[in-house]
Design brief:
Radius of gyration: 23 Å
Strand order of the largest sheet: 5-6-4-1-7-8
Bound molecules: adenosine-5'-diphosphate, magnesium ion
Number of strands: 17
Distance between the termini: 10 Å
Shape: elongated
Structural class: alpha/beta
Helix content: 25-40%
Number of helices: 14
Strand content: 15-25%
Largest sheet: 6 strands, parallel
Length: 407
Amino acid sequence: MAGIDSLAERVGGLRGKRVLVRSDLNVPLDGAPPDLRITDDGRIRASVPTIKALADAGARVVVAAHLGRPKGEPDPRYSLAPVAARLGELLGAPVAFATDTVGDSARATVDGLSDGKVAVLENVRFNAGETSKDDAERGAFADQLAELADAFVSDGFGVVHRKQASVYDIALRLPHAMGKLVETELAVMRRLTEDPERPYVVVLGGSKVSDKLGVIDNLLGKADKLLIGGGMVFTFLKAQGHEVGRSLLEEDQLDICREYLARAEQSGVEIVLPTDIVVDTTFPSGDSSPSPRVVPASQIPADCLGLDIGPDSAAAFAAALVGAKTVFWNGPMGVFEVDAFADGTRAVAEALTKVDGLSVVGGGDSAAAVRTLGFDESAFGHISTGGGASLEYLEGKELPGIKVLED
Ligand code: ADP
Ligand code: MG
């Protein structure tokens, strides 16, 4: 599929061309306006190579992105202004900022760009057309965005599973190409699904089984081992007949978990569940200090809830990753945000850094866990920027923002 080089050929060179890049700059922020602080700039960093390549080729780069979930109208809490400033620092060059998406400021900012310079438009979700389910409303916004550019580059991997104006509809209106980040992410996803190098181990955790059913379903036919931890494990433990106390439980998923366990056994996929669990009597909150306790996974007390995999399980999970040639990990093993329940997640992350093959971390919270627990990102094969998008790809679903680039 076509990248930036082929786009340059199709539009007769990029110098002087206005190129609208859809990036994923949806970073976590702390504080309140005007003192907002970016707590993890991973997604901005990941967007730099494409923006820089276009600028180096002499394009006038117009970056479109969203931040948070504003309600289709301007909201200062979700302004991209601090993100544009950080992008400028990372690029080592000034970045112009338009205070609207497609209005007077956007037009003036784009008109004022010289070759090789970069501008960021205000949060595209300040316009209701961006995420509208109505094709005409979305199309009208895409028309206005398209007027700001001569070509479109899709580089926001975190949003390619969304049929939205700046992701999907705009590609119907302008010559288009895939950015470097999307190319890289897709290449990794392909290695996880098409003929993966074996042994192939999948580690799943996080909060809910129901979020990840499609992935389990699809990967059960591909992986050699499936390790399960996090909040979702209690539905599996219950499906095996154990009591799980007050742990996270999705009663309506019990049958499907039983079916997965049976299917794994028939197809020779090894499912590894924790044998011990770190429990507490309350879910951790700011005002209580945790009193963690380790119990056998088969004997979770009725008044307790499971908040992490235990030390024996952490060691067993790490051992199961030794010698793996392909690993996909999605979902923390416990409530890693609280130190007392972070050991399981830390042990799995540590084991992934030792994998001599392709190790992939997917999922927003998992990627955040790796970074906040202090791991060096370069110790992993790939940290995906797109939680939902990578999961939908692994479920075997078609991603609208990718499909539209093929035509
Ligand atoms: P990702 O974003 O990586 O896909 P999820 O969103 O599925 O991951 O899940 C992340 C959340 O799961 C974290 O906030 C973590 O606190 C929570 N979690 C992990 N283990 C448990 C547990 N045992 N009980 C409740 N929540 C859990
Ligand atoms: Mg999440």
